[in-house]
Amino acid sequence: MMRDNVIPLTEIDSLSKEIECLMCLNLVNDSRMCIHCSAIVCVQCIENWLKIQKSCPKCSHTVEQKDFVKCRLANKLVDFIEISKDNCSKVASSQTVSTNDDYKEIMTLNYKLLDFIRKRCKSYEENLATIELTIRMLTNNSNENLKVTDVLLKNPEDSFDAYQKKKQVYTDAIRTDQLLINDMEHRLNESKTLSKQEEILQILQKHIPSKIPLKDN
Q1: Across residues 32-53, what is the average pLDDT?
Q2: Which candidate in 43, 157, 164, 205 could, as Cys together with 30 as Cys, close a disulfide (CB 3.0–4.6 Å)?
Q3: What angle do CA 113, 36, 12 make, to 5 degrees?
């Protein structure tokens, strides 16, 4: 069993709000993300919406079903939240907890959180690769890429400079996550006490979630 000071319900609720469906305002269920504005919605919510509207409920961009893609990171975060809520319920009903069990539970959670950060970093790397491809398209004047470039520049913010800024943001986020991953892997390998595991948990919690601040770019 976990100690009652590990991921309080208030923090879990705060985390839940980060991935609420834009439409039903509940924790997103089988998430879909708008390719134009990154809005997160439930697959059922957006399917119902598109039956009567042909625009994104957030950015109002003209859209089709294919413009809302599966967001694996959001789905994995939902799984993490549900597991954490279940663990909190178990803690509330438990009166005694052994130190050895605490150590194992927190260590297991630390590895899960670290795995989440690894997957997040991989997602950032995939996004960065897409942005770099877009930049190459924008700097390539060949006829075969002209139509693609025209589509990319429909929105004013989708300029060359904007993509360069996005590239730097993702590059910095990847570097930060990679440094964190290396540090946490070393700490976990060296940690032999409950207090050390709790210190690691506190550090990991500060980095989940971490938003990519692209709106102002």
Answers
A1: 90
A2: 43
A3: 25
